[in-house]
Amino acid sequence: MGRLSGDGTIVAPRPCWDGVYGVSDIHSPRYLGLYRTALSGVDDLKILILAGDIIDKGRHQWLKPVIEGVLSRFPRARLIGVYGNEEYEEARSSLSRYPGVEWLDDSYTVVDKGSCRLAVVGTTGALDRLTRWQRRHKPELAEVYRRRPRVLAGLIREARSAADAVVLVSHYALSSATIVGEPRGVWPELYSRSMERLLAEARPDAAVHGHAHRGRPYALVGGVPVYNVALPLTRRLTRIVGRVGLDSFL
User: Residue 69 half-sphere exposure, CB side, CA atoms within 13 Å?
Assistant: First the structure.
C-alpha cells in the first residue's frame, strides 16, 4: 500500500504494480509482428493483462503464438484476459483449452505478489448502443449491458476486501476521454456512460480497456487512471500503475 515519506509526500504503492502491463487488439495474426516487437521492449513483465480482441474473427488457433511470445521470454508471467468482440462466443470453449491464460468474464482473480495482493476484475464491458450486428443477431445484449455496471460494482467491492489494490479490465472503452479521435457518431458503440460513472463511484485503483484503435492512451476519470491499451494505438505494451492518493491509506 501507499505510505508517507519523511517530508510528508506520497510514495506510490509500487509492489502491486511492479511488472504489470496491458495490451489489447492484437487481432492475431494481423498485428502479431507488432506485438512481438512490443514484447521485446520490456524486461520486467510479471503480469500481462490481455484486454480483448487478442485473436481475429474467432480463430482460436492464433492465441497460441500470443501466449508463446510471452512465456518464451517470461516463463513465470501470469496472463489474465477478457473476451473482446472478436473472441466469438462459439470460440471461447476452445480458447479456454490453451494453457497459460486465465479468462475473466464478469469475475475477478487475486494475484499474490508477496508484499501486495492485486485483484483483477474482468469483463467484456458495455455499450450505450448495440452495433448493427448486435441489433440483428444479439438484441438481448441491451439488457446485459444495462445490468453489467451494477454487477461489476459488486465485484469491485468484493475484490477490494480480498486485495490491496483493484484494477478493472474491460474490452469496450471505459471513458469518453480515451475514445477522442474516433468518429463521434460511433462513440455509443465504443463505450458506456454507465461504465464511466462506475469508475467515479466504485473507484478501482486503475482501469484498463481496448477497442478504440484511434483513441487516446490515457485519461483520469474521477481520479482513476484509465489506460487504453489497444496495440494499433499504443504500438507497445502499456505499463499499468494505479492511482495514488490519501485514500490509499484508508
Answer: 23
First-residue to last-residue Cα distance in the chain: 10
- Angle, alpha carbons 164-202-158 (nearest 5°): 50
CB 224 within 8 A of CB 248: no
* Mean pLDDT of the chain, nearest integer: 92
Amino acid identity of 7? D
Q: Which CATH architecture has domain 14-244?
A: 4-Layer Sandwich (3.60)
Cell of 90: 462459439
For residue 124, what is its C-alpha cell? 467484456
* 29 preceded by a cis bond (ω within 30 of 0): yes
Cell of 225: 487512471
C-alpha cell at 9: 509526500
Cell of 209: 480497456
The fraction of the chain above a pLDDT of 90, given in percent, is: 89
Distances (CA, A) of 23 to 5, 26, 36, 186: 33, 8, 12, 22
Which secondary-structure segment (H or E) carries 71? helix 63-71
Length of the chain: 250
DSSP E strand stretches across 75-127: 78-82, 101-104, 107-112, 117-123
Instruction: Sort 150 into a burial class: Cβ within 10 Å, 0-12 / 13-18 / 19+.
Output: exposed
Give the model's confidence band at 15: pLDDT under 50 very low, under 70 low, under 90 confident, else very high: confident
